[in-house]
């Protein structure tokens, strides 16, 4: 099967640190691909390269068979790749609706929108409320309340809802359950499955092995700035995965790179 | 491995029978908390209350205070600060600061005057050029801050000196006399004109200031660009990741601030009559506009506050100056009280921010 998102030979250096060392990546259509790796393995750099947040020094990325070069997150988003960053990328003083539509605001129809560029707040609020209800973890009274007045879990919920609502080709989730309680995590996992059911593939970065093994179709194990191997969660145990990503064990047919 | 997956999620079985109610918010019963929340949502409320209180106090202290002429004089005196305050507001909302507002205003007014009188351009053309050049000066600030990533304080501290010095060099320290402007280029003095109703003069400049505040209040509140300005000031990294072109927004903000300063420069010609490179606005405009912004409840850390607050802030300063003069105190009390207000305003800002915690 042709990967929907493919990267070859990505290199990213920060001064003397090589965060990505000729890294390859493949995401197949309709799958949930988990990316795991030890701290500092370069997971975040990989995700940032795929989502346009950093520009790799070398390497190529293809989306649906066409080569792409993202100069900014806006480019990636325009191409249909939506990302939930670990930092959530929300403006604390702005409202939930403002945050969901940041950079893609809806304008009023007619003269008020075209000439005076007035935002269509009712439509944006309606949409935001709908999406949060779909996610089910929201009991937010006021869609206009500032994001900073929400709890950590609620904020993460808003960020996930934003990505799920707008992602058309690929949704990337960087530690989406890190700040969530047991119940809320369950909702997010269900949401991940819902998004896949709509035919949209997902890249899931997580430290939570049970979550990864539960929802992932394939697991990309990242080590020392590159892809060590891709395993099927049905054929391996969590302790195998941990052994691979820490270097305690080498997967079959892979030799330790330098 | 399926067993393991099952075992891994089995801890969630403990959720059975757990409360299925979702998180609820408790209404704050504490009045102080309620006020804090209300202020959090309406940041211009504090300066408005201070303004109303000071109006009442001065009204009681001085019989002459609530006269139409007094009030129109206050508005007239804050017209320039109010327009510079519009520039300062959008810059401070992005967590920046613009120390060059006064210098851009004075230099623009000198450019408008000199182009008319030295090069013989029609006044309208020189005004248009002056506005463009003011915008360009702001854009240079924006370029240095967003592209070269220099701190706004340093950049504008530098351009303030550079522009003010250029202003003296270029103008050869010459003042263009009011009578000459009146005869040859009345368009330069346009904003000094006034409407008289019932013996009260209201300068066009006052209407211009109010119009600019109203337009910017709309732009900041109801357009995508306005929301982006707040987002950039709030958390630039988050804004960038969320799809805001932060660098472009920053350049636009500083350029627009430059345009407002140039407009203020044009208004200065109308207010003072003459074109003077030594106008005090060059030195004081910065501090006055920052004072209005801070008293107006706009956070120096960016992303919070409203331009209407800045307008109230400028009015408070004007009311204090006028009121204390009418009461007949030492004018130094004005500065004393404004200093107190600044510290009070920032303290209130810090307190309001705690609402998030």
UniProtKB/TrEMBL annotation, chain A:
One of its GO terms (molecular function) is ATP binding. CDD domains: ABC_Carb_Monos_I. SMART domains: AAA. Pfam families: ABC_tran (PF00005). InterPro entries: AAA+_ATPase, ABC_carbohydrate_import_ATPase, ABC_transporter-like_ATP-bd, P-loop_NTPase. Gene3D superfamilies: P-loop containing nucleotide triphosphate hydrolases (3.40.50.300). The keyword ATP-binding applies. Keywords: ATP-binding, Nucleotide-binding. It comes from the Bacteria. Residues 5-249 form the ABC transporter domain. This is Sugar ABC transporter ATP-binding protein.
TrEMBL record, chain B:
It holds the Pfam family BPD_transp_2. InterPro entries: ABC_transp_permease. The chain crosses the membrane at residues 45-66, 78-107, 127-145, 152-170, 202-220, 249-269, 281-301, 333-352. One of its GO terms (molecular function) is transmembrane transporter activity. The keyword DNA damage does not apply. One of its GO terms (cellular component) is plasma membrane. Its main location: membrane. Keywords: Cell membrane, Membrane, Transmembrane, Transmembrane helix. It is a multi-pass membrane protein. The keyword Flavoprotein does not apply. It is found in: Cell membrane. This is ABC transporter permease. It comes from Aliigemmobacter aestuarii.
């Amino acid at each position: 099967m042709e990967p929907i998102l493919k990267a070859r030979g990505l290199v990213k250096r920060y001064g003397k640190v090589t965060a990505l060392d000729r890294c390859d990546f493949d995401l197949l259509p309709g799958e949930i691909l988990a990316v795991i790796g030890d701290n500092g393995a370069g997971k975040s750099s990989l995700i940032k390269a795929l989502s346009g947040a950093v520009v790799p020094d070398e390497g190529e990325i293809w989306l649906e068979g066409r080569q792409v070069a993202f100069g900014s997150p806006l480019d990636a988003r325009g191409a249909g790749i939506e990302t939930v960053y670990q930092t959530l990328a929300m403006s604390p003083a702005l409202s939930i609706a403002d945050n969901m539509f940041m950079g893609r605001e809806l304008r009023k129809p007619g003269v008020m929108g075209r000439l005076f560029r007035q935002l269509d707040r009712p439509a944006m609020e309606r949409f935001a409320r709908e999406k949060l209800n779909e996610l089910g973890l929201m009991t937010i009274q006021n869609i206009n309340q500032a994001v900073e007045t929400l709890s950590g879990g609620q904020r993460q919920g808003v960020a996930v809802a934003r990505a799920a609502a707008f992602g058309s080709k690929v949704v990337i989730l960087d530690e989406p359950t890190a700040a969530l309680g047991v119940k809320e995590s369950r909702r997010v996992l269900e949401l991940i499955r819902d998004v896949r059911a709509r035919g949209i593939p997902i890249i899931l970065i997580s430290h939570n092995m049970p979550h990864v093994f539960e929802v992932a179709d394939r697991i990309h194990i990242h080590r020392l700035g590159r892809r060590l191997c891709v395993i099927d969660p049905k054929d391996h145990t969590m302790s195998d995965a941990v052994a691979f990503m820490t270097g305690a064990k080498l997967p079959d047919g892979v030799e330790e790179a330098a | 491995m399926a067993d393991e997956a099952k075992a891994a999620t089995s801890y969630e079985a403990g959720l059975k029978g757990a409360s299925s109610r979702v998180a609820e918010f408790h209404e704050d019963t504490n009045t102080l908390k309620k006020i804090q929340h209300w202020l959090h949502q309406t940041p211009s409320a504090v300066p408005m209350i201070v303004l109303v209180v000071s109006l009442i106090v001065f009204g009681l202290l001085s019989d002459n205070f609530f006269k139409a002429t007094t009030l129109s004089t206050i508005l007239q005196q804050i017209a320039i600060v109010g327009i510079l305050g519009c520039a300062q507001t959008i810059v401070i909302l992005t967590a920046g600061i613009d120390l060059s507002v006064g210098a851009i205003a004075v230099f623009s007014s000198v450019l408008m005057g000199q182009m008319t009188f030295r090069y013989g351009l029609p006044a309208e053309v020189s005004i248009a050029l002056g506005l463009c050049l003011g915008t360009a000066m702001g854009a240079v600030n924006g370029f240095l801050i967003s592209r070269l990533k220099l701190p706004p304080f340093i950049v504008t501290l530098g351009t303030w000196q550079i522009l003010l010095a250029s202003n003296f060099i270029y103008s050869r320290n010459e003042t263009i006399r009011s009578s000459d402007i009146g005869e040859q280029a009345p368009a330069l003095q346009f904003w000094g004109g006034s409407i008289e109703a019932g013996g009260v003069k209201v300068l066009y400049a006052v209407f211009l200031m109010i119009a600019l505040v109203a337009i910017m209040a709309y732009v900041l509140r109801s357009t995508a660009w306005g929301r982006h300005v707040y987002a950039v000031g709030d958390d630039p990294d988050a804004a960038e990741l969320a799809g805001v072109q932060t660098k472009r927004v920053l350049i636009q903000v500083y350029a627009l601030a430059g345009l407002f300063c140039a407009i203020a420069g044009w208004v200065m010609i109308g207010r003072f009559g003459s074109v003077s490179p030594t106008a005090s606005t060059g030195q004081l405009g910065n501090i006055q506009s920052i004072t209005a912004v801070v008293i107006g409840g706009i956070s120096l850390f960016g992303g919070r506050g409203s331009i209407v607050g800045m307008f109230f802030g400028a009015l408070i300063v004007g009311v204090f100056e006028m009121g204390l003069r009418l009461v007949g105190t030492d004018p130094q009390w004005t500065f004393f009280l404004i200093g107190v207000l600044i510290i009070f305003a920032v303290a209130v800002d810090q307190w309001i921010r705690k609402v998030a915690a």
